[in-house]
Description:
The protein has helices at 55-61, 77-80, 83-86, 98-108, 111-118, 204-215, 231-239; strands spanning 2-7, 37-42, 45-49, 69-71, 93-96, 123-126, 130-132, 135-143, 155-161, 166-170, 175-176, 187-191, 219-223, 244-246, 252-254. By secondary structure, it is α/β, with parallel strands linked by helices. It has one domain (2-254): Ribonuclease Z/Hydroxyacylglutathione hydrolase-like (Metallo-beta-lactamase, Chain A). The strands form two sheets. Strands 7, 8, 9, 10, 11, 12, 13 and 14 form an eight-stranded mixed β-sheet that branches. The chain has a seven-stranded mixed β-sheet with strand order 6-5-4-3-2-1-15. It starts with a strand and ends with a strand. The structure holds zinc ion (3 copies). Residues 74, 76, 144, 172 line the site of one zinc ion.
Amino acid sequence: MKIKFLGTGSAHGIPIWNCDCAVCQSPNPKDKRLRSSLFVEIDDVKILLDFGPDCRTQLMKYGIKSFQYAFLTHAHRDHMNGNIELGKQQNLILEMPKPVLKEFYAILRSGKYWFEKRNPTMIIQEFKPRTLHNVKIDTVKLEHQKDYQKTPFPCYGYIFESNEFKMAYLSDYSAILEEEKLKNLDLLISDGDGFENSGHGHIGIQDGIKIFQKLAPKKMLFTHIKHTKSHDFLTKYVKQFGNIEIAYDGMELTF
Ligand SMILES: [Zn+2]
Ligand SMILES: [Zn+2]
Ligand SMILES: [Zn+2]
């Protein structure tokens, strides 16, 4: 199994349009972050996790020609606004948990009709846990932005588990609702949006480290990074707590 970070930025990416801060102006390529998205390859099966506003740029930048599955974590626009590109992929299976699917259609309004008309080979449906080449794929229920929304906003992480390896991708969350699913992780990819604990619906770096200490994965990577701290600063900071790194655009890992 191989993963590649197509984007590691928070909702506005880095640099943020019209922002003059030191991080947005940084010459370090690792401080350039497109909207968060992960590409997973299990042998010949390719999966796109989230398709935000930078999706077209990301697919072209990394020479991605096709994928068989696209899974959505939640229906925030920084994760799904590249949906128009999905219409260009033949025989694509687009899935997400039922409550996310409801929000996805609510935001797109004419979504299902639009896809079916332009791409009759595409299947859009509720996520089903499945095994692809001995890798089990499942979801984990999260809490995200309950603080200012009247009803909790449906949001999920994805778990990939084989006999040798277990990884979880939790790009946006403030709490984990099915923690029992995250035992014995080799890799935890976590929301790192914000350095201090700001209570804005994201766990951020400092509370994320508490999750690392609680769940004790072998390795942790932060993504969905904000412009308030540089890659170098965050890398140095998280290192003191164990095997933790800050992901960057184009970062690849093979298991
Ligand atoms: Zn997000
Ligand atoms: Zn900035
Ligand atoms: Zn979100």
